[in-house]
C-alpha cells in the first residue's frame, strides 16, 4: 500500500511539473459592438468569452495554486482599435482589500492587477499595464532585468469594488503596443494579481523563480486576426510660465514647445523634443563633495529616462552629460574676474529612434544638440566686460545595434560620439558586448570590449575588456569574472567612469531559499571576493571579502546584514588628483545592518546602521539611516528620512603648495533630513511635498605632505584654512492633475538656497538660521501639456 502511495505522489508531482512547464493558451474573439469601460462587465459578449483562470503563486511560495476564495478570472476581446480585458478578483473579505491612492506609476500599499503583452511573442520585451484597486494606472516597458516605468502610454481603465472582491476593465489601444503586420497574431501574454495584505503575487502562466529569465515565461494569446497596425503619431504641445525672484531681482519667463512621437513602422518609434522645458523636474540633491570624483546625479528629465533601455547597454551613456556642466575653462587675465559662469548648457533639441525588428534586431539612435555657452569676464581696472566660449555648439550621438536570439541572448554594438565645434575636445567610444544564456536560463556567459578615442591637442586611445561566467538558476548560484582597463580609457564625454588603469578578478557564490520555510519567507547568503591591481605599479587598489545575509520573516519584515573585510593595505590612485601619485589606505573592516518592516502597516519604518574601522589610530566611520512612514488614510501619507554620517580622522587632499600635495586629517559630519508628503484628491489629482535640508562640514586638525611612496609625512607649519561648512535647502510643493489621457496641468512652488563657507558652524539651529537668512530663490511655475492622438483627430474629421 505504501508503494502505491509513493507511486501516486510521484505521478502527481510529475504531472504538475509537466503542467507548469507548459505555456497556457487563451483564445479571444472579435467584436463589433461598443464596450463601455466602466468596471462592470455587463455587455453580453463577455459571457461567451474564454476564461483565463487557475492562477499560481509567483511570490513567495512559487507554484502554489491560488485558493478558491481568491479565484481570479480574466477575459479578452478585441476590435479594430484595441483589445479589452476584464478581470474579476474574488476575495472572501473585500473590506480588507488594500487600495491606497497614489500618483500615476506609483504602487503604494494596494492590490493590483496587471497584463503583460508581447506582440512578437519573442521573450524580449513586454508592454506591462497595471491597475490598482484604487484605479491608479501604472505602465512600463520591460526587458530582462529592467523595467522602464518612465514610459507612459494612453489607455483606459476602470475599477469597481463588489461584495465578492473587485473588478477591473481595461482598454488598450493598438497604438500603445507593438506587434507584427500579420493577418494572424500570436502574442505572448501573462496576468498578475497582487494581494497586498498577504504579500502574495499570483500569475496566470507560472513564472518559475528557479529560472533566471522571466520574460520567456509568458503564456500565449490566440485568436486576433485581420487587424492593422495603427498610425502611431502623437503631438504633445506645452506652454509654461515661470516667475523667479530672490533678494536682488525678479523676472517672468514664458516658454512653449512640443514633443513628438511617431511610429515609423510596426517596431520603431521616433521621439523628438522641440524647444525643451525641464524647469519642473525634481531638484538635484546637492552635497559637499570632497571625493576625487564628480557627483553622479540622477536623471529627472523624461526624455532621457523613457525608452532608453537600448542606450544603456554597456554603461556608456550618462545622460546628464547632455546639457550638463560646461567643458571649457576661460582664460582670465591678471586684472580680470569671472562674473558669470553658467552651471549648465541649454539643450536645443533632441531625437531618439528605437525599436526591434521581428528577427530580434534592436536599433537605437539618439542625437542631441546643445547651445553655445559663454562666461562673462570683467576687467577690474577698466570695468569693461567680455565673453568667452566655455562650451561650443555640441552634438551628442549614440548608435546601438542589439541582436537578440534564442529569446534570451544578445550581441550588442554601441558607438557614442561627442563633437564640439571649434578648439574643444571631441570623443568617440565603440563597444562590442555579448550576453549568452543557455536554453533553460541556467548559465550565463557575458563580456565586452570597448575602445575610446579622445581628440585634443594630444590625442589618446584606451580600451576596456571583461569576461564573466554565472550560474543563474537554482538554490546555489555563483559568478566569476575578470576585467582589464587601460590607462587612457576615457568615456567621460558622454558616459561616466571613475576608475581606470587596473585589472581585476571577482567571484561570488550564493545560497538562497526560494520557497517559504517555517522560519523565513525568503533567505539568501552571498559570499564575495574582489581584487583590483593597478596596471602601472602593480599595487593593490582594492581587495576585500564580503558576506551578505538577507532574509524576510514570516511577518514580511526584511533583514539584511553585511560584513566586509579588507585584509591588506591598499593604495588610492585618485585622491591625490595628480597623475602618477597615490596614497595608502589602511586595512579596514566595515559592516551594516538594516531592516524594513512590513509595508502594509499604517506605520512602518526601515533603518540601517553602518560602521567602518580602519587599522589607523582613531580612524572610523559611523552612519545611521531611519525612514519612518505613516499612512493616515488611502489619500494622505507622510514619509520622513533622517541620515547621519560621521567620519573621524578621515584623510584627504586639501591643496598644493611648494612642499607638494597637502593632505589633512579631518573630522567630517553629514546630516540630511527629507520630508515627503502626498495628498491624493483623486486617482488623477494630487498634492505632493518634497523637502530636503542637508548640512555637512569638514574640519581639519592635522596636516601632511604626500611622499613619493604614497605615505604621509607631518606638515605642522601648514596654516591655511581649508575647512568647509555646507548648507543646502530645497522645498517643492506641487499640484498635478491628469485632466485627460496623457494631458496634465502641473503647478509648482519651489524655494531653495545654498551656503558654502570656510567657517565651520557646528550648531544646527545656527546653520538653519544662516541658510534661511541667505539669498533664497523662489520660483512659481505652471505648465500645461496636452496629448493629441492623430488617430482620434482623424476620426473626428
UniProtKB/TrEMBL annotation:
Domain Carbohydrate-binding: 37-194
Protein species of origin: Flavobacterium taihuense
Signal peptide: none
UniProt xrefs under InterPro entries: Carb-bd_dom_fam9 (IPR010502), DUF5916 (IPR045670)
Pfam families linked to this entry: CBM9_1, DUF5916
Domain named DUF5916: residues: 229-797
Protein's name in the database: Carbohydrate binding family 9 domain-containing protein
Amino acid at each position: 500500500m505504501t508503494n502505491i502511495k509513493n507511486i501516486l505522489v510521484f505521478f502527481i508531482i510529475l504531472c504538475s511539473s509537466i503542467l507548469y512547464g507548459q505555456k497556457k493558451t487563451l483564445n479571444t474573439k472579435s467584436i463589433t459592438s461598443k464596450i463601455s469601460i466602466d468596471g462592470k462587465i455587463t455587455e453580453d459578449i463577455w459571457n461567451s468569452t474564454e476564461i483565463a483562470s487557475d492562477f499560481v503563486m509567483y511570490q513567495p511560495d512559487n507554484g502554489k495554486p491560488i485558493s478558491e476564495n481568491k479565484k481570479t478570472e480574466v477575459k479578452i476581446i478585441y476590435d479594430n482599435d484595441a483589445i479589452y480585458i476584464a478581470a474579476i478578483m474574488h476575495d472572501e473579505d473585500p473590506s480588507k482589500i488594500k487600495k491606497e491612492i497614489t500618483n500615476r506609476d506609483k504602487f503604494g500599499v494596494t492590490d493590483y492587477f496587471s497584463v503583460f503583452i508581447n506582440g512578437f511573442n519573442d521573450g524580449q520585451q513586454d508592454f506591462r499595464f497595471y491597475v490598482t484597486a484604487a484605479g491608479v494606472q501604472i505602465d512600463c516597458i520591460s526587458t530582462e532585468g529592467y523595467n522602464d516605468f518612465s514610459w507612459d502610454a494612453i489607455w483606459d481603465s476602470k475599477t469597481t469594488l463588489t461584495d465578492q472582491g473587485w473588478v477591473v476593465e481595461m482598454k488598450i489601444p493598438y497604438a500603445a503596443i507593438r506587434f507584427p503586420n500579420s493577418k494572424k497574431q500570436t502574442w505572448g501574454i501573462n496576468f498578475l494579481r497582487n494581494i497586498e495584505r498577504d504579500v502574495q503575487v499570483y500569475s496566470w502562466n507560472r513564472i518559475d523563480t528557479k529560472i533566471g529569465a522571466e520574460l520567456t515565461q509568458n503564456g500565449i494569446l490566440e485568436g486576433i486576426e485581420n487587424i492593422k497596425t495603427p498610425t502611431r503619431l502623437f503631438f504633445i504641445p506645452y506652454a509654461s510660465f515661470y516667475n523667479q525672484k530672490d533678494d536682488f531681482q525678479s523676472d517672468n519667463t514664458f516658454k512653449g514647445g512640443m514633443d513628438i512621437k511617431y511610429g515609423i513602422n510596426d517596431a520603431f518609434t521616433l521621439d523628438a523634443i522641440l524647444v525643451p522645458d525641464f524647469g519642473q523636474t525634481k531638484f538635484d540633491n546637492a552635497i559637499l563633495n570632497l571625493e576625487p570624483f564628480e557627483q553622479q546625479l540622477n536623471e529627472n528629465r523624461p526624455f532621457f529616462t523613457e525608452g532608453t533601455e537600448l542606450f544603456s547597454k554597456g554603461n556608456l551613456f550618462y545622460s546628464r552629460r547632455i546639457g550638463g556642466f560646461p567643458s571649457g575653462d576661460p582664460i582670465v587675465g591678471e586684472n580680470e574676474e569671472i562674473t558669470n559662469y553658467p552651471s549648465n548648457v541649454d539643450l536645443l533639441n533632441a531625437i531618439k529612434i528605437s525599436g526591434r525588428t521581428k528577427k530580434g534586431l534592436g536599433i537605437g539612435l539618439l542625437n542631441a544638440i546643445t547651445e553655445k555657452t559663454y562666461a562673462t569676464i570683467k576687467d577690474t581696472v577698466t570695468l569693461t566686460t567680455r565673453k568667452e566660449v566655455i562650451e561650443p555648439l555640441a552634438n551628442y550621438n549614440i548608435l546601438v545595434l542589439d541582436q537578440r536570439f534564442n529569446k534570451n541572448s544578445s550581441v550588442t554594438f554601441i558607438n557614442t560620439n561627442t563633437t564640439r565645434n571649434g578648439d574643444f575636445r571631441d570623443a568617440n567610444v565603440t563597444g562590442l558586448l555579448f550576453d549568452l544564456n543557455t536554453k533553460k536560463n541556467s548559465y550565463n556567459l557575458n563580456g565586452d570590449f570597448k575602445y575610446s578615442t579622445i581628440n585634443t591637442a594630444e590625442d589618446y586611445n584606451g580600451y576596456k575588456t571583461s569576461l564573466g561566467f554565472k550560474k543563474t538558476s537554482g538554490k546555489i548560484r555563483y559568478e566569476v569574472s575578470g576585467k582589464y582597463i587601460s590607462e587612457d580609457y576615457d568615456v567621460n564625454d558622454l558616459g561616466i567612469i571613475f576608475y581606470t588603469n587596473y585589472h581585476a578578478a571577482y567571484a561570488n557564490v550564493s545560497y538562497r531559499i526560494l520557497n517559504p520555510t517555517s522560519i523565513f519567507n525568503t533567505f539568501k547568503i552571498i559570499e564575495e571576493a574582489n581584487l583590483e591591481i593597478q596596471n602601472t605599479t602593480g599595487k593593490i587598489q582594492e581587495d576585500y571579502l564580503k558576506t551578505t545575509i538577507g532574509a524576510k520573516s514570516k511577518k514580511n519584515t526584511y533583514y539584511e546584514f553585511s560584513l566586509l573585510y579588507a585584509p591588506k593595505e591598499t593604495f588610492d590612485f585618485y585622491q591625490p588628483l595628480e597623475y602618477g601619485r597615490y596614497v595608502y589606505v589602511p586595512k579596514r573592516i566595515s559592516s551594516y545592518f538594516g531592516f524594513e518592516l512590513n509595508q502594509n502597516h499604517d506605520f512602518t519604518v526601515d533603518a540601517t546602521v553602518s560602521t567602518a574601522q580602519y587599522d589607523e589610530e582613531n580612524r572610523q566611520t559611523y552612519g545611521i539611516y531611519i525612514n519612518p512612514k505613516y499612512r493616515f488614510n488611502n489619500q494622505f501619507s507622510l514619509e520622513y528620512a533622517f541620515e547621519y554620517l560621521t567620519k573621524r580622522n578621515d584623510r584627504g587632499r586639501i591643496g598644493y603648495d611648494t612642499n607638494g600635495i597637502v593632505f589633512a586629517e579631518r573630522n567630517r559630519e553629514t546630516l540630511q533630513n527629507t520630508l515627503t508628503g502626498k495628498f491624493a484628491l483623486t486617482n488623477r489629482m494630487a498634492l505632493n511635498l518634497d523637502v530636503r535640508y542637508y548640512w555637512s562640514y569638514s574640519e581639519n586638525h592635522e596636516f601632511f605632505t604626500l611622499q613619493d611612496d604614497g605615505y604621509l609625512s607631518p606638515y605642522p607649519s601648514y596654516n591655511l584654512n581649508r575647512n568647509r561648512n555646507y548648507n543646502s535647502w530645497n522645498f517643492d510643493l506641487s499640484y498635478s492633475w491628469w485632466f485627460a489621457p496623457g494631458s496634465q496641468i502641473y503647478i509648482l512652488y519651489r524655494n531653495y538656497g545654498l551656503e558654502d563657507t570656510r567657517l565651520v558652524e557646528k550648531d544646527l539651529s545656527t546653520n538653519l538660521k544662516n541658510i534661511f537668512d541667505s539669498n533664497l530663490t523662489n520660483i512659481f511655475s505652471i505648465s500645461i501639456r496636452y496629448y493629441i492622438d492623430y488617430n482620434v483627430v482623424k476620426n473626428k474629421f
